[in-house]
Amino acid sequence: SMDGAPPPASPAGLSAFVAVSQLLGLTLLATTGAWLGRYRGGVAWHSPLQFNAHPLCMVLGMVFLQGDALLVYRVFRHEAKRSTKALHALLHGLALVIALVGIIAVFESHRAKGIPDMYSLHSWCGMAAFVLYLLQWLLGCGFFLFPGASFSLRGRYKPQHIFFGIALFVLSIASCLLGITEMLLFKISDSYSHFVPEGVLANALGLMLVAFGLVVGYVVAREEWKRPPLAEELALSMDFKTLTEGESPGGGS
């Protein structure tokens, strides 16, 4: 090992794209807070304003934290794989908890106001995203975080894990866009078409959600920005493969 040597630099452009993603993410949260505070009366739990916790929690959990969890393997390129994996799982777990608070907020608010649940396209897409996200997290922890899954089983499941991770991020953003539109049509349907400030702000929030998704998606998709395996990981992986599969490290394709 090269003790004392500085870690290799990040690939050109990666840091800039990650910085833009974080700037967009924080602006998203600030814009959501500004919309709810300025036009919707703010957020309070045991009150008629309980519903407003829903959009705030969903943008924070299912978009910002989920997006950051996807970026973990690109940002922490030279840290131990185990630590990076734990942070990836932790951010997704935190996103799930915050999203659950947002879901409770909307059901309790509906019950208090006598509004029916789960009839809109937004609610169907949103609930599908949450349930599948929870399932993806549990499977990910089972396969990759806790010991037990064989090397070949992990290898076979990994492409599915990566695909559904990106697909659920896209579905989460799509659900948010549907939610923004639904909220505007419920709250300001009579003035929305006149380009009122609330409608313009909420539309801008929607565009920022799309932009955040595109930047995160681009960083994750760039092949040369993928996390390179460390030397000790390669050695460990070969030893593990030999033990579990009975193959010689030098043999095979």
From TrEMBL:
Keywords in UniProt for this one? Cytoplasmic vesicle, Electron transport, Heme, Iron, Membrane, Metal-binding, Translocase, Transmembrane, Transmembrane helix, Transport
Chief place of localization = membrane
Q: Which GO terms describe its cellular component?
A: chromaffin granule membrane; lysosomal membrane
The portions of this protein that span the membrane are 12-36, 56-76, 88-107, 127-149, 161-180, 200-221
Please tell me whether the keyword Lyase is annotated for this protein. no
Record localization: Cytoplasmic vesicle, Secretory vesicle, Chromaffin granule membrane
**Pfam families (UniProt xref):** Cytochrom_B561
Role this protein plays: Transmembrane reductase that uses ascorbate as an electron donor in the cytoplasm and transfers electrons across membranes to reduce monodehydro-L-ascorbate radical in the lumen of secretory vesicles. It is therefore involved the regeneration and homeostasis within secretory vesicles of ascorbate which in turn provides reducing equivalents needed to support the activity of intravesicular enzymes.
Give the protein name, as stated in the record.
Answer: Transmembrane ascorbate-dependent reductase CYB561
Source species of the chain: Mionectes macconnelli
